[in-house]
Amino acid sequence: MKNIYLDYAATTPVDKRVVKAMEPYFIKKFGNTMSLHYFGQEAKLILEQSRGIVANLISADAKEIIFTGSATESNNFALKGVAFANRDKGNHIIISSIEHPCIEESVKWLGSRGFEITKILVDKHGLVNPEDIKKAITEKTILVSIIHASNEIGTIQSIEEIGGICKQKKIYFHTDASQSFGKVPIDVNKMNIDLLTASSHKIYGPKGAGLLYIRKGIKIEPLLHGGGQENGLRSSTINLASIVGFSEAVKICKKEMKTENKRLEMLRNKLIKEVLKIKNCRLNGDRKKRLANNINFSFDFIEGESLVIQLDMHGIACSTGSACSSIKLEPSNVLLAIGLRPEQAHGSLRISLGRWTTEKEIDYLLKVLPEIIKKIRAISPFK
């Protein structure tokens, strides 16, 4: 049986070059960055070098990068930290209706503690209208958080324009760039971004490492208190090996981004063209304003879980949506937000390509997918 991985949006395998870069930091260079002796100071030097490498990718200052344990932690830190640090200015937070669950749950939690939350609706392609954000801003608004590229449908937002509105209104602007970081060019200054979330394991680095970019001067309350690591904003013993792996993954992305995107766009467009030939199938997300590696389809008269299982039996790993919520039985909030009916949302399939996806693998998927859909539809209770 074939073994084809097409769920890179959920997580990526660690690049062998990254593993090689990490190896010394498990046994030979294992010092605690807070220690004063040689081992600790060597680790501290490597940590700061890694910080500089990551900052360079988004045109930030190294001192503005805070390493965390995950994108979920970074998003929680950004929203809760800004909310509580700026409560004297206001209590209103704006997000979009297609955010990652960790953003949704964070604002839900903040809402139970006296903060007012506004969700901006998106159009049928999953795009936020910046003017809607402008209209939603009040004198109590302290933060706007809009996902850069959707983890489910791949749609890329007009972050620079949204950031410009926030800058003009003197409101902090955060973007969850977990899916876009390392895949599309990001300049936090040009794009008017005050806080940005990114994750290592989405770009062929190890799990257990993420970051939060915090523009100098941003007022934010730390979530973790203790030894004062990361400028006192994120106390915890530094996960040096994973951070080194994260920075190595960043170096590779910076070098290979253009050629990789071109290759993936070719495979993505081929897949879209051929799959849309299947009857009662639609593409979710904007046709052009989308990540090079992300494709999301909905098939009528299909249960997405059955489709994923059948594909898995043919050796193909795909997803019905966000890996963080794929075990839930509820239809995807993102797909409902773009106007799909619950039964249509349940019939979704997310295919995400990556560094080791080949055209031969895409051809195999295109060969088996129509037959699997035909088979499931023949016994579907939705017909």
Write the SSE topology.
Elements lengths: L3 E2 L10 H7 L1 H4 L10 H20 L7 E4 L2 H15 L6 E5 L4 H11 L4 E5 L9 H7 L4 E5 L13 H11 L2 E5 L18 E5 L10 E5 L25 H36 L5 E4 L9 E6 L4 H10 L2 E2 L15 H5 L4 H5 L1 E5 L6 H20 L5
Helix pairs in contact: 1-8, 3-8, 4-5, 6-7, 8-12, 9-12
Explain the overall architecture.
- Helix 4 runs parallel beside helix 5, helix 6 (130-136) runs parallel beside helix 7 and helix 9 packs across helix 12 (359-378).
- Strand 3 (92-96), helix 5 (101-111) and strand 4 form a beta-alpha-beta unit.
- The protein is built from twelve helices and twelve strands.
- The protein has two domains: 4-12 and 256-378, Alpha-Beta Complex (Aspartate Aminotransferase, domain 1); 16-252, Aspartate Aminotransferase, domain 2, CATH 3.40.640.10.
- The protein has helices at 16-22, 24-27, 38-57, 71-85, 101-111, 130-136, 159-169, 240-275, 304-313, 333-337, 342-346, 359-378; strands at residues 4-5, 65-68, 92-96, 116-120, 141-145, 172-176, 195-199, 210-214, 281-284, 294-299, 316-317, 348-352.
